[in-house]
Amino acid sequence: MSVRAQRSRPLFGWRTMQSLKGASFTLPFLAGFALFVIVPVLMGVRESVYTTQSSGLGFGGQTVEFAGLRNFAKGLADGAFWTGMFRVLLYAIVVVPLTQALGLGLALVLDAARRRTAARFRIALLLPYMVPGIVAAMIWIYQYSPTVGPITGFFALFGLDVNFFTSSMVWVSMGNLAVWSALGFTMLILYGALQSVPHEIFEAARIDGASELRIAWSIKVPFVRGSLVLTSLLSIIGTLQLFDQPVLFRAVTPETITRDFTPAMMIYDQAFQVGNLNYATALSVILAVVVGIASAIIYRFMNKEES
Amino acid sequence: MIRSRARWATAGLAVTALAGLSACSADASSAGAAGDTEPAGPVTIEVWGWNAETGEQTAEAFNAAQDDVTVKYVLQASNVATQTNFRNATEAGSGVPCLVQGFAPLTTMVVNGWAQDITEQVEGSVDLYNEGALAAAQVDGRYYGLPSGSDGQFLIVNQKTFDKYDVEVPATWDEFVEAGRELGPHGVDITNLAGEDPSILMNLAQQAGAEWFAIEGDQWVVNFTDEKTVAAADVLQPLIDEDLVSNQTFMDKPALYKYFDSGKMASTTTQWWSLTGLQTNLADSGGDWSAHPVPQFADATAPVTPGRTLPSFVPEGCENPGAVVAYTDWLTTPEAIEAGRNAETGAVSFPVQVPDASDYVDAVVPEDFFVDDKAAGEQIVTAQDRVIGKFELGPNYDAWFPELQDQWGKAVAGDITLQEALTAVQEFVAADLDDKGISYTVTE
């Protein structure tokens, strides 16, 4: 009897089986992640250690040669690439905190408003986020247009001659567009986080005589710090990969926004204009590493502050 | 038509004998396999293009007109979509069509190994085409493209503005600059130089006779700073320096048309296919415009018109280039031009590849736009007659054109001179050719 019982014992215990069953729900995600992220990354890394060469007039076809880390060395020493990187970093230093501050402010205002009113404004504020980046850029290019756009005319009412397409204003033009697009998403995440703050704390604070401003600053903001880290990270990652807005603004200020204006634009140019896919993938890997390092630094810095 | 049929009958027999009537698209390949054992029907060729209006109906008319070749027109979403789909088909090694509407300069097609040498097939048809169309289809003296008409440039001027300020319409580029100086004080720009579009510089260089790229033996000769190009730059530099031009972007179309329509822009170079758009959008100045030959360089021995095109090509792997040439030859016939008439607008596509397109020019001159429609039509025909067609753009056009755009943008903004811009582009070209391992020399 005991021998039979031993033989029929399953290979895994029920706890392990439960865990495996639970884990199996992640399989579709893991398969998709492997297929659409891991495999392309590996293919990209493989591509970046080769180089494509022609000879003579270039008519005789191309040969692919192993280049080792040559493309990476070239990328690390490429002045145009790092100038673009520095440029978007500077841009991020202004745009990211601005977006977070405005998003937080809006979330706090909505949190203080009645629920029905907040719901209406929440949808309205989220609308720009739903507009695709290219479409948003097109909309704003028309808004900015000195000839047919309304904004130049508006400033003219106050005697101000503002041209959003000049090289000195193009950063402001793009920054405004970036904030407009990202504000709704940031607000939504922070508003969601605010909803989960226990309301008993607010009541206790009010009994202690705290003003609404004090409650917001000393209770609500510390509670949503985790969400702020998330939205800041996403914002930084998005900004470092800045592409569609400058590509469209390039048409109106080509003297300012060159083809290698941002790292992503340079990668696109190398891949699809110059035709150097190997170098472009090497630059992509470098950009991914930089984004990873920047994210890690921000994450650690903000989490440290929290702890 | 009879001649075209006869040519195809000959070509068809040859192809039947040599290739067993196999075709190059996926469908046609299987038909070709059947042809090895039994007499096959017509050869099927797949044609890729983005002519949504009349591409398919023209192909159907060709199919109805003869029995030897069946054209299957595969409509592409755009130039870019054609390029993407073609790259994919080439990489996959299957589904490669037999004729592709040109989506990049011909030399780029050759360098990428996409276009096949069809000199043998084209040489029998040269009298069907104008010189510009034939020149545009060649790389290093061989036909890698199908003869494709270039759109000859002509000058349209706002005659009302010229008359108002009593300025003569310029016949030379020197006079053009002078006209700009006369109009400038009245707040009128002689023309518009969009900061993102250096094509006017390229057109001027082509007209002056510059050769930015030439082939010498087994290497390219690169020269962006020869005296012809400098002459082209010297036309534009004073216009920029003296602020005689505007810099309206093509990106902001409503603003651009509003400016064109305002009477504050005196002239622009254009080509036949832009006229409908101009007529539609220039409501106020409609009827004020007149067409003139593009100004010439003072030392020109004969009047020439700049104009380039992206020729259609027969991809490597297509086994029936003869069938393709038969189709494109048929496109020059009156029957084919009529077949391409747009059912909605009633307009035919202007046959820019034929030696004499005068019979069709009335259809492309829009109503109520020109002061004199007949004179405008004559200028369009003259422009086509004089079009140069060929301007070699070298093996790395896709790489250097964005650099030219960057440098042009800076020059138009007055940050650098055009000569400095051209020198920078030349340096970029040299570095890129080095990277790619392509042989070249730079002429000082």
TrEMBL record, chain A:
The ABC transmembrane type-1 domain covers which part of the protein?
Answer: 85-298
Keywords linked to the UniProt accession: Cell membrane, Membrane, Transmembrane, Transmembrane helix, Transport
**Where can this protein be found?**
Cell membrane
Q: Where are the transmembrane segments?
A: 20-43, 88-109, 121-142, 177-194, 279-302
| Membrane topology reported for the UniProt record | Multi-pass membrane protein
Cited InterPro entries: ABC_transporter_permease, MetI-like, MetI-like_sf
Principal subcellular localization: membrane
User: Could you say which protein family the record assigns here?
Assistant: Belongs to the binding-protein-dependent transport system permease family.
Name of the protein in its database record: Sugar ABC transporter permease
The organism of origin for this protein: Promicromonospora umidemergens
From TrEMBL, chain B:
| Keyword flag Signal | yes
UniProt superkingdom = Bacteria
State the UniProt keywords alphabetically. Answer: Signal
Q: Which InterPro entries match?
A: Bact_solute-bd_prot1 (IPR050490)
Q: Which residues form the signal peptide?
A: 1-28
Name the UniProt record assigns to this protein: Extracellular solute-binding protein
